[in-house]
Specification:
One of its GO terms (molecular function) is flavin adenine dinucleotide binding. The chain has helices at residues 4-9, 12-22, 48-55, 108-118, 125-135, 140-146, 155-166, 178-186, 209-219, 231-237, 240-246, 262-272, 287-293, 307-316, 334-345, and strands at 61-65, 83-88, 102-105, 171-175, 195-196, 225-230, 252-257, 297-301, 321-326. With 346 residues, it is an alpha/beta fold. The protein folds into two domains: 4-138, 3-Layer(aba) Sandwich (Rossmann fold), CATH 3.40.50.1220; 147-345, Rossmann fold (3-Layer(aba) Sandwich), CATH 3.40.50. The strands form two sheets. It has a six-stranded parallel sheet, with helices on both faces. A three-stranded parallel sheet has the order 1-2-3.
Length: 346
């Protein structure tokens, strides 16, 4: 499992050599994601976070490269049967939250160069098939939803329609709770920084979508930038659209508007019951009109057939744009179930 240490080390070649030689299935997270494309045959991203959580208890050895064990990784406690090798440039990370059996302190790229000289060529394709047979059924319904036009709009379907509208050629910035889950799993990173998901584990914070989208467009002005935002998290820094308009920084923000703090609302429903939902419902808010009022482009979308044309009009507007899509408020992501499970067992 690789994390931001891979992104900072600029060690794409060394990492690919290591994976190719050892045959070890892998998952790259945070700014390490995309150092090897998600569609590599040994990548677990075809099953997303559930693939990783299903694979870890089946391993006898876990190697982490520049990665901190946070709550999404159950603080390293989800695979007690496995030996753990941790590589990190920061010595304080080697035994943080979970003691390592072997700790290597150093730059990820330099460490991989040395490891590549010592590891043996292996073929673990049969085990990779065993893993896929175990985890793909867990997201079978989600995969089916991507191809299914429903009303209200399922967030997994919305991700798929965004890819269709952009011809899957964009820098994607993800921000939200349940929204982050569906976007992180539905999108595939083709290179580093092509899928930026700060709220999904890197900082564990909300509100980064619009500011990061502005930053991505300034850094890569020739690339289309699409921000995928939950409606709650959009409210944190929505006024940065004013910054984007003032400085003529065009990008497209697609809001997954489930009319609630979805992760919080569904957590309350699961723990306390639907009659005890408190301060987590937002209602239908016309965020697209806020963006229009600031001088940007805005559209409201309520049906599946409107999604692709609206996003393409936003792309063609040449302005900072907001496409506000009403999504199914009843959909709960596996990330919410993980969060609620952790809260109720502590």
């Amino acid at each position: 499992i690789g994390g931001s240490g891979i992104g900072f080390s600029d060690c794409d070649k060394e990492l690919l050599d290591f994976v190719s030689k050892t045959g070890i299935p892998f998952m790259l997270l945070n700014t390490g994601r995309g150092a090897i494309p998600d569609e590599h045959p040994l990548s677990l991203w075809d099953g997303g976070q559930l693939a990783m959580l299903a694979a870890l208890p089946q391993t006898d050895l876990v190697i982490t490269l520049g990665l901190r064990f946070n709550w999404l990784l159950m603080h390293g406690q989800g695979f007690p049967q496995a030996k753990l090798v941790r590589v990190d440039i920061d010595a304080t990370e080697i035994d943080r939250n979970r003691s390592s059996d072997i700790g290597l302190v150093g730059d990820i790229g330099l460490s991989l160069k040395e490891l590549n000289r010592r590891v043996k060529q292996r073929d673990l394709s049969s085990w990779m098939k065993t893993l896929r047979d175990a985890y793909l059924p867990l997201i079978a319904d989600e995969i089916a939803q991507r191809e299914r036009a429903t009303g209200p709009i399922h967030p997994a379907r919305l991700v798929e329609q965004i890819k269709k509208a952009t011809q899957d050629n964009a820098i994607y910035v993800i921000d939200g709770g349940d929204t982050s889950y569906f976007a992180s799993v539905g999108l595939k990173a083709k290179e580093k920084s092509s899928v930026i998901s700060a709220a999904a584990g890197l900082f564990g914070c909300l509100g980064t979508g619009v500011p990061f989208g502005i930053g991505a467009k300034v850094a890569k002005p020739d690339k289309l930038v699409v921000v995928i935002n939950g409606d709650g998290s959009f409210g944190f820094n929505a006024m940065e659209f004013d910054t984007a308009v003032r400085h003529n920084i065009p990008f497209v923000c697609v809001i997954f508007n489930d009319q609630a703090w979805g992760m919080i609302k569904h957590g309350q429903e699961l723990v306390y019951g639907p009659e005890r939902v408190v301060s987590s419902e937002l209602g239908v808010v016309h965020y697209e009109k806020v963006v229009e009022g600031l001088g940007g482009y805005g559209e409201l979308v309520t049906t599946d057939d409107e999604i692709v044309p609206a996003i393409r009009r936003a792309m063609d507007s040449g302005k900072p744009a907001c496409v506000n899509v009403l999504t199914d408020p009843t959909v709960t992501s596996p990330a919410t179930l993980l969060l609620v499970g952790g809260l109720t067992t502590e």
